[in-house]
Amino acid sequence: MNTENPVKTREDLLYLLSQAAELEHSLSCQYLFTAFSLKEFTSEGVSQAQLTKINRWRRRINEIAVQEMLHLALVSNLLTAIGGAPYFRRANFPQAKTYSSLKLQFKLAPFNETTLNRYICFELPNSFDNEEQRDNWTQFCQRIRDEELLALITALPKPLIPRKIEYNTIGELYELIRQGFETIGEKLFIGPPDAQATGIFREMIQVKDLNSAMEAIDLIIVQGEGSPSRRDDSHFTKFTKIREEYLTELQSDPNFQPTRPVIENPLLSLQQDNTTPGANIITDSLSRDVAEILVALYEVMLQILLRFFAHTEENEEQMYILKSAFINLMPFGISPLARAITQLPAGEDFPGMNAGPSFEVYADVQLLPQMSSAWIFFQERLQEIAQACDALINGSRTESYPQLREALTEVSTAQKKIAHTISLEPNGGSWTNGISQLFSPMDIDHMKRIPRFRVDLGDYETVKNDADAILNSVSSRSMPLLPEGPWTEARINLFKNWKDSDFPL
Hints:
Layout: H1 10-37, H2 48-81, H3 113-122, H4 131-152, H5 170-184, H6 210-224, H7 235-252, E1 266-267, E2 280-281, H8 285-309, H9 316-341, H10 371-393, H11 402-421, H12 441-449, H13 460-465, H14 467-475, H15 489-500
Parallel strand pairs: 1-2
Helix pairs in contact: 1-2, 1-5, 2-6, 2-7, 3-4, 3-7, 5-6, 8-9, 8-10, 9-11, 10-11, 14-15
């Protein structure tokens, strides 16, 4: 690791943490794209045994992507703790920057050996159990970097000023951040403790002092590259195991193709930050419409997440609503649309190729600073997205794509429900206006899948008949039944009053 520029000031840490936030955000999008590119059905030319392996790889990559979002959240708390602000900006793909001396391309690419090699080198540990293992992987990743830089050498713009602090791996970046916290110490923590976000991820850590900052940084390092004593569950190990299984399957069946024919770096339009060759503009009109809905949903999801981390007047119940909205937007919004678009044509310029989720943003993701207008904006955007889904469902262009219609219907229903919960006005005490909105799409789906319950939280009669059991569950702090955790006192009291008032419809 380069030690010529030790981290000695708050400004150095704010710079490095902003780099880390942008990096974690970009990694998550890349990993999600690769997971979405994988096939889902045996009708796509794979055997049931091969599909089982593909599904396992998808789950592992999705788990890693979710942990990268956790890392982004932890970095946001670290920034807030030392007087900074959550940082969700990033360049669109393919990105011209290579994050200082990391020297690896940041692009949206489908599942294959080349993509896995790049991900393994993203997560390369700083230390190994033995010197031979360290040298082998270091040489492996150096070859990958050399190959990628050779392809980019004429495309990357030369920086006007040198980077302040250099690092060669993600692990080195966090070691620099760790060193900075240790060097500067407790005087760093000028951010108000009540500005710390919690609850959105199970492993979320509130950063209020040096010990909690070290805990957050160590969690990111261990989950990413692992440690000598905890390597098996790291991102590095997961990607190396996926690569081993994939190459083994290719030896058994050279024709094995686990990935849909998805184009790299799909975009709706080129923007000023798209200076690196490799962007591919989706031209099929239906695919563009679906991609536009996904991009709009992705952007509002980031804005809700930013509001959650940079909240101002929101009370406990309103923070729960923001958390719930974000948690539900990925599985009941982004994911079904992304899976659907990888089955749609990219356009005449890409014969036989499919489109994919672009994760592009059309403006910097900024905090909406006024609480009342921010909440109105969130509600309006989700309603507009639901209306756009309905327009495609009712149009003739989707008749040949039943899976797309199913995805659009799921997304429309979920966005209408989420939009209804994002209101600064207190919910009413009836089932229609208040109680039904307490149960998110995730809550409803979760309870339908638990064999010992099979409760439909979207049905009035079911909730009425099981009200006592539901109330006991949502009130439990130690064993909450719903996936979003225990309810706030405000919504517990609302449900209890509804029950005591003889369940008004």
